[in-house]
Amino acid sequence: MMDAVARPTEAEPNLSAIAADAAGEHAVGRPTVYVYEAPVRICHWVNAFAILILMVTGYLIGTPLPTVSGEASANFVMGYIRFAHFAAGQVLAVFFLARILWAFVGNHHSRQIFYIPVHRKQFWKEVLHEIRWYAFLEREPKMYVGHNPLAQTAMFTGFTVFVAFMIVTGFALYSEGTGIDSWQHKLFGWVFAIWPNSQDVHTWHHLGMWALVMFVMVHVYAAIREDIMSRQSIISSMISGERQFRE
Amino acid sequence: MGAETFYSVIRRQGITRRSFHKFCSLTATSLGLGPLAATRIANALEAKPRTPVIWMHGLECTCCSESFIRSAHPLVKDAVLSMISLDYDDTIMAAAGHQAEAILEETRAKYKGQYILAVEGNPPLNEGGMFCIDGGKPFVEKLKMMAEDAMAIIAWGACASWGCVQAAKPNPTQATPIDKVITNKPIIKVPGCPPIAEVMTGVVTFITTFGKLPELDRQGRPKMFYSQRIHDKCYRRPHFDAGQFVEEWDDEAARKGYCLYKMGCKGPTTYNACSTVRWNGGVSFPIQSGHGCIGCSEDGFWDKGSFYDRLTNIKQFGIERNADEVGMVAAGTVGAAVAAHAAVTAVKRLATKRDDTKQDH
User: CA-nearest residue of chain A to B305?
Assistant: First the structure.
């Protein structure tokens, strides 16, 4: 299930086949593994873009821009901001759903962000190792084909759970506008059984946004850092789908 | 007393059959019912005995009653004297003392399972309910006794529906909404502090006419009055969509009647009919008078921070902070931590490289 390998043996290239030029200088051979399939990468970037729009527009809905002058009929500032928010929200929902479906179809890396193997001792050991690595207590990082165990934990809680929470509360709030007979209210109206006053749902939706802001910060930082420190490609992997391991 | 029909009562009052049918058409229209409903209402009012109503008062301020008696469509005179048989209401009834209390027992025995119990206010449960004594007994006991044989219960106002101010933190008397005390009867919540007069009489008219509760939403409120937010039907909504807001109470935007969203108007989270039915016979409602909605028909509206803040304060963080302020501090902390971590990483990396270089020599 997990890719706890120090070195991906399945991708060990044939070193003798590496070409050398006239000066005897060898091209550097770097083992690569295909990790992220196209649907995973598309979902990643669409969701990233949608979340960015949602954060900016969402903040502006809670704290609107300064008042515009002129007739009300000549302006639609708040309307456009809200439209962008709702549109991006539905795009996120669709691609999040598509991503869940792909987890059933795709390779085992595509399933990683949807669970934490809580029952496996080895997993927690390696989480600890990763924590020690981030706390500068380990000299050498382990290499993983997919997410490292700490990253998997962070992806599951920081992304999958929070985004699901935002989609559910988001649709519940959206149903306030579409009305009591809408499918949004039928599907997500139960949120108001938990918080009868939708003011509370708004507050939680705001807090969820900030949780995602924090996730994005750590996510981007960790991706850049591991790209440099763990001698494996992280950022380009989400574009090409291939993970390259450097010496 | 309750055996008379509505029709026989108004005929006795000298109202013609023609006027009676006019009234039925008007009621059908005001309730938003179809063309056949007027005939059905007429039939019901001619054939059905008037519904006995018991109106009780728990911990409350009587603002619901004050609102109710100001109803214009239908006039409360019609509702109280003709449509229903208001057998007991300790605030406005003539009888008092044992005479008054005897009516409760009588109604319970005579109209078992047929009367409506309208409750204004709520019972406090702390100290055995002694914070609200009514007729020598804790109100909660009286409530339970009368609820037992009622057909349905109307929970008037924010008190009976949600708890309102007496249930606001820390709620020393443990004031509890009706649906948390009575769980085996259909309860219709008519929240608001107070509810709109026409909404109250409208609900009563519906129940007496059709002999059943109107369609309720998930939270037990009648859909016909509470399915939309103030915001959805607010006449200032175009200013909201345009991005035109009042920023200060005395600014130009306030004079022009722009949206009160930034002034903490709770219209976007409040379900009520104020922006359509309005108040005082349709004269105005808070937003029309230049003040934001305070969300008085919503659960726990006293505990959601200031009436003048857009974002709700989160008291758990010691000082009063809203979600965005809490979030910004947390994100700032994470940002600082990331920066510090990056700095340590860079220093470590340099140090390791130097070590490696040393070892190579």
Answer: A199
Q: Which residues contact residue B361 at a Cβ distance below 8 angstroms, ignoring those fewer than 6 apart?
A: none
pLDDT tens column, B253-306: 999 999 999 999 999 999 999 999 999 888 999 999 999 999 999 999 998 888
User: Among residues 293-332 of chain B, which lie with CB inside 8 Å of chain A?
Assistant: 295, 298-301, 304, 310-312, 314, 322-324, 326-328, 330-331
Which whole number is the average pLDDT over B12-25?
84
Strands B313-314 and B133-134, sheet pairing: unpaired
Mutate to test the interface with B, among A203, A215, A230 (most CBs of B within 10 A): A203
Write the CB contacts of B73 (distance below 8 Å, at least 6 apart in sequence): B26, B30, B198, B201, B281
Distance from CA of B225 to the nearest CA of A (A): 12
Residue of chain A whose alpha carbon sits nearest to that of B238: A72
Return the beta strands (E) in chain B as ranges.
51-57, 84-89, 116-120, 133-134, 137-138, 152-156, 187-190, 313-314, 321-322
Half-sphere exposure of B16 (CA within 13 A, CB side): 3
Q: What is the pLDDT of residues A175-225, one digit of tens each?
A: 999 998 899 999 999 999 999 999 999 999 999 999 999 999 999 998 888
- The answer to whether residues B311 and A203 touch, using CB atoms and an 8 Å cutoff, is yes
ipTM: 0.84
Contact of B351 with chain A, judged by CB distance below 8 Å, is answered with no
What are the angstrom distances between the C-alpha of A116 and each of A113, A127, A150? 8, 11, 10
Q: Going by C-beta distance under 8 Å and a sequence separation of 6 or more, which residues neighbour residue B202?
A: B30, B31, B224, B225
B335 and chain A: CB distance < 8 Å anywhere? yes
List A residues 64-123 in contact with B (Cβ-Cβ < 8 A): 64-69, 72-79, 81-82
Selected for mutation to probe chain B from A61, A77, A78, A187 (highest B CB count within 10 Å) is A78
Q: What is the reported pTM? A: 0.85
At A27 the pLDDT is 59
Quick one: average pLDDT of B177-200? Answer: 94
